[in-house]
Design brief:
Blueprint lengths: L5 H6 L12 E2 L9 E3 L9 H14 L3 E7 L4 E3 L3 H7 L8 H15 L1 E8 L5 E6 L4 E7 L2 E7 L5 E5 L3 E5 L13 H25 L3 E5 L6 H17 L13 E5 L9 H15 L3 H4 L5 H27 L2 H5 L2 E6 L8 H10 L6 H7 L21 H15 L1
Antiparallel strand pairs: 1-7, 2-7, 3-4, 3-13, 5-6, 5-10, 7-8, 8-9, 11-12
Helix pairs in contact: 2-4, 2-7, 5-7
Length: 401
C-alpha cells in the first residue's frame, strides 16, 4: 500500500512548487512587504489566552453550515455532496467540528486562517484542509494573485489565492492580511514579568537568609567560606521538617528580613482584563456562568461576525461566478435560542404560531425533528386573509347604505 504524507494528500503529490520566474511580488497599496510570518511565540501556552481561544472556537465550531439556493420565486436547502462535505466531513482526517475548531483557533491566535480547497479534474470540491504554514508570500502572475506557502517541514507550495479560503481578524491597512500581534504580545510580556515576580518572591521568602558570625579570632577567608558551606549543608540542604536548628557558642546567626515587592492584585486584574478585551469576552462566558443577555451579547459581538465572514468567504471561494449568479451560497447558522432561559422558550412557543415550523420549535427544546415537521403552525384565531378583510370592509359599507 502506497504511503502518502499529509502534504501529498492535500496537494495531490509530494513535490514542491515555487513561484515561476515570471511571477512578481504582489505590491500592496502602502508598498509594505507582501510576505507574512506566522508568529511562533509562547502566547499559545498562556492559560488565559488559551481559555479565551477555546471558548470562542468550541462555540463557533457548533455553527451549522448550509448550502442554499435562492431565486425570485424559490428558496431551497440543497442536500448535496457539498453540503455533506462542509457539514459532516470536510477532509479525510477531520470531522466538521474538529475542522472548524482548528480554523477558528488559527483565526483567534494568529489573526489569519487559510483553508485550501481541494478540487478534482472536474473542478468539483472534494476536500477542505486548514493550512498550518510557517511563512507566506503574495505574488502576481497573469493578472491573478498567488500565495507561496512555506511549511515547517521545508515543503513549499504555490497556489492561487482564489483557491484558498482566507479568514482575517483585525484586518491590516492593506486589507489582505489580519492585523499584527503586538498588542497582545506586549500585554503578555508584562504579565509574564509579574508572574515571574510572584514566583521569585515565594522562593525568596521561603529560603533562609542571614549572616553567620563566629566569636573566634580572625578567620581566614577559606575558613569563613567553610563555615558558611557547613551551615548551608546542615540547615538548608539537609534540613528536616522541624524548622529547628542548632549552633554552638562560637557561632551566631542573624536573620535578614527580606520583603520583596510584587504586583498588586489590581495590577494583575488589569492585565487579565486587557486579554479578555482583546478577545471580546468576559469571565462569565469562559466559565459558562453567563446569563441569557450575556450569551446574546457574546453571540452578536463575537460568534455572529465569524459566521458572517465564513459565509461570505466560503461562498465566494467555493462557487463560480455563474453558480453565485444563480443563487448558490453557504450560510452558517447558530440557534441562539438553545441558550435562552426556559421562560423565553415558553413565551416563544406561545407566540410563534404562523412564523415557525414544528421542527424549528422542537429544536428550541433540543428535540429531534419529526416527519412532516416542516409545516408551519397556523393559529386560526389570529389569522385573517386579505379576502376576509375586504369582505368585512365591504359589509360595513353596505350596512351604511
Amino acid at each position: 500500500m502506497e504511503k502518502k504524507s499529509l502534504f501529498s494528500r492535500i496537494f495531490g503529490n509530494d513535490k514542491d512548487t515555487v513561484a515561476p520566474q515570471t511571477a512578481t511580488t504582489f505590491k500592496l497599496l502602502d508598498d509594505y512587504k507582501s510576505s507574512f510570518t506566522r508568529y511562533k511565540g509562547d502566547f499559545e501556552n498562556d492559560i488565559q489566552v488559551r481559555a479565551c481561544v477555546d471558548t470562542i472556537a468550541r462555540n463557533a465550531a457548533k455553527m451549522h453550515p448550509k448550502h442554499i439556493r435562492t431565486s425570485k420565486d424559490k428558496f431551497e436547502i440543497v442536500n448535496d455532496n457539498l453540503y455533506r462535505l462542509i457539514a459532516k466531513k470536510p477532509n479525510e482526517i477531520q470531522n466538521a467540528y474538529q475542522f472548524y475548531y482548528q480554523v477558528i483557533s488559527d483565526l483567534e491566535y494568529y489573526n489569519n486562517s487559510y483553508i485550501y480547497i481541494q478540487r478534482d479534474e472536474n473542478y468539483k470540491v472534494v476536500g477542505l484542509y486548514p493550512l498550518s504554514y510557517r511563512t507566506i508570500t503574495l505574488y502576481e502572475l497573469d493578472g491573478k494573485i498567488y500565495i507561496q506557502f512555506k511549511f515547517g517541514n521545508s515543503k513549499e507550495r504555490f497556489v492561487a489565492y482564489n483557491n484558498c479560503i482566507h479568514l482575517t481578524r483585525f484586518v491590516s491597512k492593506d486589507g489582505l492580511y489580519g492585523g499584527n500581534y503586538e498588542p497582545i504580545i506586549k500585554t503578555l510580556s508584562i504579565k509574564h514579568i509579574l508572574d515571574e515576580g510572584i514566583v521569585n518572591a515565594i522562593k525568596t521568602t521561603s529560603a533562609i537568609k542571614g549572616v553567620i558570625k563566629s566569636t573566634q579570632a580572625m578567620l581566614k577567608p577559606e575558613d569563613v567560606k567553610k563555615m558558611r558551606d557547613q551551615f548551608v549543608k546542615d540547615f538548608v540542604d539537609n534540613a528536616d521538617d522541624s524548622g529547628i536548628g542548632g549552633l554552638d557558642a562560637t557561632t551566631t546567626f542573624t536573620p535578614v528580613k527580606i520583603e520583596p515587592q510584587t504586583a498588586t492584585q489590581d495590577q494583575i486584574d488589569a492585565f487579565d482584563e486587557k486579554i479578555l478585551s482583546y478577545f471580546g469576552i468576559n469571565e462569565n462566558i469562559i466559565q459558562s456562568k453567563y446569563s441569557e443577555d450575556e450569551w446574546n451579547a457574546f453571540y452578536e459581538s463575537v460568534l455572529e461576525p465569524i459566521g458572517l465572514q465564513m459565509s461570505l468567504e466560503f461562498s465566494n471561494k467555493i462557487f463560480t461566478p455563474t453558480e453565485i449568479f444563480f443563487g448558490n451560497e453557504i450560510v452558517f447558522e447558530s440557534n441562539r435560542l438553545q441558550y435562552a432561559s426556559n421562560n423565553t422558550k415558553i413565551n416563544l412557543l406561545r407566540y410563534a404560531n404562523n412564523i415557525m415550523s414544528i421542527n424549528e420549535l422542537r429544536e428550541v427544546f433540543n428535540l429531534t425533528p419529526i416527519e412532516n415537521g416542516e409545516a408551519i403552525l397556523i393559529d386560526q384565531n389570529h389569522t385573517q386573509t386579505l379576502d376576509d378583510i375586504d369582505s368585512e370592509e365591504g359589509g360595513s359599507e353596505n350596512e351604511g347604505n
